[in-house]
Amino acid sequence: MDPHTEATLAPPVTAVPLPRHLLEPPQPPPGHHTSTAERGSFCLAVCSCGWTGPARRSRDLARKDAAGHATGPAAG
Length: 76
Ligand SMILES: [Zn+2]
Prior knowledge:
This protein is an alpha+beta fold. It has helices at 20-23, 59-71; strands at residues 34-39, 42-47. Zinc ion (ZN) binds at residues 32, 47, 49, 51, 69.
């Protein structure tokens, strides 16, 4: 009698997909989300795209810079 050998089946390997946030680098949200930041006694406009406006004495001026950047290319 020949010895009966059984091949042991390996368990199926399930492919686990990686989370998307590990595959894609973090990117700023589309569009321009502006805000103002205070630097010392100055205030400047900042944007989510990395743009920063000139330092202003007035927060209102910085807001206008941010608005001008968010709506389109500012003259100058
Ligand atoms: Zn921007």
